[in-house]
Amino acid sequence: MNRLAKTFLLTATAAALTLSVIGEASARDRWHRHNNGDAALVGGAVGLATGLIVGSAIANQPRYYEEPRYIDPPYEPEYEAVPVYRAPRYYAPVRADIEPWTPQWERYCSYRYRSFDPRSGTFVGNDGREHFCTAG
């Protein structure tokens, strides 16, 4: 069925259900002689609007999902990369000739070694022994 027919069918169904409920409610009030014609018209309009909304919501649902297709060009490397291994470079530390027991020597050794003792001029190395600090 096409979308228009579905919408019309659902609208008619909703309107019929609304009008039947309003008609039953107004039948109970027949002894009071109120003006029930206006209520029936309002109820019909509400049913019609409800049917239109529900019908269009149902009719507009997607039926299936088609995944997008991506077409990539085939990958062709321009050249085959050959890894190049180079030996690491080692740089000699910059040596400054600092005389022992000077303020510069003491500053250098205290920054360089945490266990530096300025009274003896030694530090404790990784081997656990005391070594004299030579800066330079």
From TrEMBL:
It is found in: Membrane. InterPro entries: BA14K. The keyword Magnesium does not apply. Residues 1-27 form the signal peptide. The chain crosses the membrane at residues 39-59. Keywords: Cell membrane, Lectin, Membrane, Signal, Transmembrane, Transmembrane helix. It is a single-pass membrane protein. GO terms for cellular component: membrane. Belongs to the BA14k family. This is Lectin-like protein BA14k. It comes from Rhizobium mongolense subsp. loessense.
